[in-house]
């Protein structure tokens, strides 16, 4: 019986050899695949084991982590709910993270290479200090006003966006997209609850998850006239130069006449450029655009920041929230020649012109800032877990110079005139010089128009303190006036509490 | 291999024996290995606390010390009652059992609220229960060693044990589900909060019966056979009883949906048959039957369903667990992810998250441990298991009677097969079938049955390593009561030098 016993011994060896080989396969060869599998909750649990840092603005914690008794040790909470949702994003257990939570994830989670010193220190002291803190540029008061005014707008628009920038630095003072959402259920540790909340938002026809301020484009309407006016000023036309106007004008190649918003607007055959801007004269700008030519208009828009695909808003280095590129679109016939009718339409911000609210604020800001466009940013400072060390402090950086200071000064004057005497009166703030441009953009024949306003505020010494863009989607009549009013309110709040730079 | 090369016998053994090489009892080696095993268990406990509590409490050593005391007691019992038993068995099993207790305590700590972790009592939770069960199991093993002074004596109860085995297997099947079903498997007998799995003990009882019957009939089985398809089949009346017992057990288990145990019994039966008859044809027939049966069950499961549907589902999960990773395949997927996350070195004891594995305290304990000790740690555990199995087989090789050979060989192989079935199951080598991981999984029945198995192996190895030339006097002497009775009809084998 010993021979079969020996063979049984060999069989056992073979069986264990198979186990050993298979464990090698799983724990060595396939280990990385399994470790990083979507179904592997361990990575998340480990991630929730260290206290995630705060996201703060102006001394207020906007996103913070609380210790729980559950499996995941820390619960991410957003005390101010929907108000900052589009900036902060959210950090869900099973879904994809968004916003600043995503772009600054490594630092907040404490896994960033920058924090290696702190992690080593923890290892020796045995403390668990958690991740680093991210300080935003947002002004709490401006954000409050922007959120409240936008969600309680007087024209009943359901969708819209507002963004305010410090023109001198590019620091974002307020950023609101409407409708917003409450990020707290999305960060729930109950993944079913989180998924249900996400699906509900995802399927909402109003699209609350969209960041309309940064990543949605709409026809800018008359706000685009500022770009055309800038091109005109650089091409031998002064602010008092008479340009052709009229109550109706038909482009050379198309039978569709361009009219003004009201019969009272520039019915004269000629108006000054200043008057055309102040009253938002469609016929004047349509003819001006055709006269300047498509390339000139497109090039000017490009110099203001149109067509830039890779702009991100976060730190001033790499990374940040992605933005959509604003576009002037094709102004061509099928054969490649310039479509004069389309050019006329584009010159008043229609046809295929599309703009983000961010771009609107950048245009207004660069005009306020003597023609220098600052790179927008949201992250002011990165602080160590114990708040003693700063790992990053934003240093304002010029993005581009769309216009010369003299042209900027002329544009400022015209835009101030819009608020003093023209369509943007609602934006005025006592004690400050406010300039701006309203816009009413047709979306589709059967839908209400979008209301726009881009503008800026200068203090008594002429220093720019805030630049803003407010957009109310399908706001209908009075939309741009309401946008102007809201913009004034936001700038007023930003002046009182400018936020971090 | 020369006598000159072997070290001089230590004084402790020299007094008892007269320089015969086989006669060294190696009890001191057993003691040192046992202390080493307990030191490892204590170190494991300390690492767990360091990782989970961020501090090592002053009583990290208590489970190891409690276990050490129990095992030391068994060591003393072996010293007196089985002085020539294999010295590697007890330390190896003690290491596994100690790590099992340590890991279960680690799960308790992980599940406990952070504030209560440091004050978790040694006898609290699953880890504490396992500690208590270990105490009981070791006492049981010591008791068996005390009662069974010669392994051949249990052959007297072979038929009784065979019957008892069937009854034990069938008890949960005939009891109402309310007291026999846990997690959909009817394997338990529950009385209040106390539950035992009679099937775990049936394994031992049936094996004694198989060994006895096959040894008694081996001449007939090998010789009086009819040739069919080139293979010699024994006469039905010779094989009948043992096939009957086995068939009943397996059928009951199949309908209890305890696939792992039925596979285990099948393997156990085929191997004892092979060892007894020395005919490879039995292995071939067994394998053909097994794979044929498995394939048939798979096909039937996909078409007819019924009792086979469960098997079909398991086979489908095995073929692609990621097809339904959040429901049917969840457990296996999570087990694989745990093993993969552990990688080569593991997250360190207490450093992983084995709590999220369903049934980590039972079927998936090996995956849970693997997450924390990695491939290297698991390989070491496998080697310890292999050591136990091969030591058991070695005892079977060395023991002089056929019954002992078959008994020890069958037990050792069954233990190894059980490890293969469960570890292969959780690592997707073979379809997953529920089994406990010997000495690691939570549960008193499994622990007790496996300790009894070890007691039998210790007893057989004691018989095997006992010097041939007279028992001598003193402690090593054969217990009084005359020479052991010879098994009826069992041929005596001649030891080859």
UniProtKB/TrEMBL annotation, chain A:
<feature type="domain" description="Penicillin-binding protein transpeptidase">
    <location>
        <begin position="160"/>
        <end position="492"/>
    </location>
</feature>
<dbReference type="InterPro" id="IPR012338">
    <property type="entry name" value="Beta-lactam/transpept-like"/>
</dbReference>
<dbReference type="InterPro" id="IPR054120">
    <property type="entry name" value="PBPA_dimer"/>
</dbReference>
<keyword id="KW-0328">Glycosyltransferase</keyword>
<dbReference type="InterPro" id="IPR001460">
    <property type="entry name" value="PCN-bd_Tpept"/>
</dbReference>
<dbReference type="Pfam" id="PF00905">
    <property type="entry name" value="Transpeptidase"/>
</dbReference>
<keyword id="KW-0808">Transferase</keyword>
<dbReference type="Pfam" id="PF21922">
    <property type="entry name" value="PBP_dimer_2"/>
</dbReference>
<dbReference type="InterPro" id="IPR050515">
    <property type="entry name" value="Beta-lactam/transpept"/>
</dbReference>
<protein>
    <submittedName>
        <fullName>Peptidoglycan glycosyltransferase</fullName>
        <ecNumber>2.4.1.129</ecNumber>
    </submittedName>
</protein>
<dbReference type="GO" id="GO:0016757">
    <property type="term" value="F:glycosyltransferase activity"/>
</dbReference>
<feature type="domain" description="Penicillin binding protein A dimerisation">
    <location>
        <begin position="52"/>
        <end position="134"/>
    </location>
</feature>
From TrEMBL, chain B:
<dbReference type="InterPro" id="IPR001182">
    <property type="entry name" value="FtsW/RodA"/>
</dbReference>
<feature type="transmembrane region" description="Helical">
    <location>
        <begin position="88"/>
        <end position="107"/>
    </location>
</feature>
<feature type="transmembrane region" description="Helical">
    <location>
        <begin position="282"/>
        <end position="301"/>
    </location>
</feature>
<feature type="transmembrane region" description="Helical">
    <location>
        <begin position="60"/>
        <end position="81"/>
    </location>
</feature>
<keyword id="KW-0472">Membrane</keyword>
<protein>
    <submittedName>
        <fullName>Cell division protein FtsW (Lipid II flippase)</fullName>
    </submittedName>
</protein>
<keyword id="KW-0132">Cell division</keyword>
<dbReference type="GO" id="GO:0051301">
    <property type="term" value="P:cell division"/>
</dbReference>
<keyword id="KW-1133">Transmembrane helix</keyword>
<feature type="transmembrane region" description="Helical">
    <location>
        <begin position="157"/>
        <end position="175"/>
    </location>
</feature>
<dbReference type="Pfam" id="PF01098">
    <property type="entry name" value="FTSW_RODA_SPOVE"/>
</dbReference>
<feature type="region of interest" description="Disordered">
    <location>
        <begin position="467"/>
        <end position="497"/>
    </location>
</feature>
<keyword id="KW-0133">Cell shape</keyword>
<feature type="transmembrane region" description="Helical">
    <location>
        <begin position="406"/>
        <end position="427"/>
    </location>
</feature>
<feature type="transmembrane region" description="Helical">
    <location>
        <begin position="261"/>
        <end position="277"/>
    </location>
</feature>
<keyword id="KW-0812">Transmembrane</keyword>
<feature type="transmembrane region" description="Helical">
    <location>
        <begin position="364"/>
        <end position="386"/>
    </location>
</feature>
<feature type="transmembrane region" description="Helical">
    <location>
        <begin position="31"/>
        <end position="48"/>
    </location>
</feature>
<keyword id="KW-0131">Cell cycle</keyword>
<feature type="transmembrane region" description="Helical">
    <location>
        <begin position="439"/>
        <end position="458"/>
    </location>
</feature>
<feature type="transmembrane region" description="Helical">
    <location>
        <begin position="195"/>
        <end position="215"/>
    </location>
</feature>
<feature type="transmembrane region" description="Helical">
    <location>
        <begin position="127"/>
        <end position="145"/>
    </location>
</feature>
């Amino acid at each position: 019986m010993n021979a079969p016993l020996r063979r049984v011994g060999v069989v056992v060896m073979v069986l264990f050899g198979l186990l050993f080989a298979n464990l090698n396969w799983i724990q060595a060869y396939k280990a990385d695949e399994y470790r990083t599998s979507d179904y592997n909750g361990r990575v998340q649990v480990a991630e929730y084991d260290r206290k995630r840092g705060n996201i703060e603005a102006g001394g207020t914690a906007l996103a913070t982590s609380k210790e729980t008794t559950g499996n995941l040790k820390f619960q991410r909470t957003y005390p101010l709910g929907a108000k900052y949702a589009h900036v902060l994003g959210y950090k869900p257990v099973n879904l994809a993270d968004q916003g600043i939570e995503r772009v600054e994830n490594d630092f907040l989670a404490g896994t960033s290479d920058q924090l290696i010193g702190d992690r080593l220190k923890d290892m020796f002291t045995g403390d668990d200090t958690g991740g680093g803190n991210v300080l935003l540029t947002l002004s709490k008061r401006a954000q409050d006003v922007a959120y409240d005014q936008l969600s309680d707008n007087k024209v009943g628009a359901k969708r819209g966006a507002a963004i305010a920038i410090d023109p001198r630095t590019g620091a974002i003072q307020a950023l609101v997209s409407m409708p917003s959402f409450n990020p707290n259920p999305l960060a729930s540790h109950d993944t079913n609850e989180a998924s249900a909340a996400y699906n509900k938002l995802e399927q909402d026809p109003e699209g609350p998850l969209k960041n309309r301020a940064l990543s949605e484009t709409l026809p800018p309407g008359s706000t685009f006239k500022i770009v055309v006016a800038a091109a005109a000023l650089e091409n031998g036309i002064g602010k008092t130069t008479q340009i052709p106007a009229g109550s109706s004008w038909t482009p050379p190649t198309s039978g569709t006449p361009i009219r003004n918003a009201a019969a009272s607007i520039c019915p004269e055959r000629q108006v000054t450029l200043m008057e055309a801007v102040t009253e938002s004269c469609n016929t004047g700008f349509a003819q001006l655009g055709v006269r300047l030519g498509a390339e000139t208009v497109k090039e000017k828009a490009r110099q203001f920041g149109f067509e830039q695909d890779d702009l991100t808003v976060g730190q001033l280095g790499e990374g940040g929230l992605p933005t959509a590129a604003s576009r002037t679109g094709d102004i061509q016939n099928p054969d490649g020649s310039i479509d004069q009718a389309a050019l006329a339409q584009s010159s008043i911000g229609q046809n295929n012109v599309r703009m983000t609210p961010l771009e609107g604020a950048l245009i207004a800001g660069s005009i306020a800032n003597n023609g220098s466009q600052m790179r927008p940013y949201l992250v002011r400072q990165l602080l160590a877990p114990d708040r003693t060390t700063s790992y990053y402090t934003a240093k304002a950086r010029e993005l581009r110079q769309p216009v010369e200071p003299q042209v900027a000064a002329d544009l400022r004057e015209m835009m101030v005139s819009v608020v003093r005497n023209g369509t943007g009166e609602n934006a005025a703030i006592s004690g400050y010089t406010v300039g701006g441009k309203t816009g009413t953009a047709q979306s589709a024949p059967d839908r209400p128009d979008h209301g726009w306003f881009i503008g800026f505020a200068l203090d008594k010494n002429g220093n720019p303190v805030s630049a803003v863009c407010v957009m109310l989607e399908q706001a209908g009549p009075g939309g741009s006036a309401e946008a102007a009013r809201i913009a004034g309110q936001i700038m007023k709040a930003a002046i009182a509490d400018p936020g971090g730079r | 291999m020369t006598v000159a090369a072997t070290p001089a016998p230590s004084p402790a053994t020299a007094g008892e024996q007269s320089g015969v090489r086989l006669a060294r009892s190696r009890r001191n080696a057993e003691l040192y290995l046992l202390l080493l095993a307990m030191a490892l268990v204590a170190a494991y406990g300390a690492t767990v606390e360091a990782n989970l509590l961020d501090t090592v409490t002053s009583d990290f050593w208590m489970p190891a010390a409690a276990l050490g005391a129990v095992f030391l007691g068994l060591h003393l019992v072996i010293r007196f009652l089985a002085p020539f038993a294999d010295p590697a068995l007890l330390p190896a099993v003690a290491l596994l059992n100690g790590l099992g207790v340590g890991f279960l305590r680690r799960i308790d700590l992980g599940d406990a609220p952070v504030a209560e972790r440091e004050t978790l009592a040694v006898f609290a939770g699953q880890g504490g229960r396992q500690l208590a069960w270990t105490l009981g199991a070791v006492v049981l093993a010591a008791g068996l060693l005390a009662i069974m002074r010669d392994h051949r004596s249990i052959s007297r109860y072979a038929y009784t044990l065979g019957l008892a085995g069937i009854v034990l297997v069938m008890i949960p099947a005939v009891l109402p589900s309310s007291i026999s079903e846990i997690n959909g498997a009817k394997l338990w007998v529950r009385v209040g909060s106390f539950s035992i799995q009679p099937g775990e003990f049936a394994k031992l009882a049936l094996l004694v019966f198989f060994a006895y019957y096959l040894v008694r009939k081996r001449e007939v089985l090998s010789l009086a056979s009819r040739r069919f398809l080139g293979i010699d089949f024994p006469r039905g009346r010779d094989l009948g009883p043992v096939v009957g017992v086995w068939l009943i057990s397996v059928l009951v288990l199949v309908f209890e949906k305890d696939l792992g145990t039925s596979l285990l019994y099948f393997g156990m039966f085929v191997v004892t048959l092979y060892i007894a008859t020395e005919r490879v044809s039995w292995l071939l027939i067994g394998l053909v039957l097994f794979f044929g049966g498995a394939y048939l069950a798979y096909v039937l499961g996909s078409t007819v369903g019924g009792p086979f549907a469960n098997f079909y589902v398991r086979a489908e999960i095995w073929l692609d667990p990621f097809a339904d990773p959040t429901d049917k395949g969840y457990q296996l997927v999570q087990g694989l992810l745990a093993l993969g996350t552990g990688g080569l070195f593991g997250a360190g004891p207490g450093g992983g998250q084995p709590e999220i594995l369903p049934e980590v305290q039972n079927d998936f304990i090996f995956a849970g441990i693997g997450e924390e000790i990695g491939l290297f740690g698991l390989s070491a555990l496998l080697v310890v298991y292999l050591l136990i199995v091969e030591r058991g087989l070695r005892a079977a090789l060395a023991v002089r009677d056929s019954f002992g050979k078959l008994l020890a060989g069958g037990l050792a192989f069954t233990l190894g097969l059980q490890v293969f079935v469960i570890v292969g199951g959780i690592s997707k080598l073979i379809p997953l079938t529920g089994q406990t991981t010997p000495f690691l999984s939570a549960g008193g029945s499994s622990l007790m049955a496996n300790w009894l198995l070890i007691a039998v192996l210790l007893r057989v190895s004691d018989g095997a390593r006992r010097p041939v030339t007279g028992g001598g006097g003193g402690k090593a002497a054969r217990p009084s009561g005359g020479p052991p009775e010879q098994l009826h009809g069992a041929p005596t084998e001649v030891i080859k030098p």
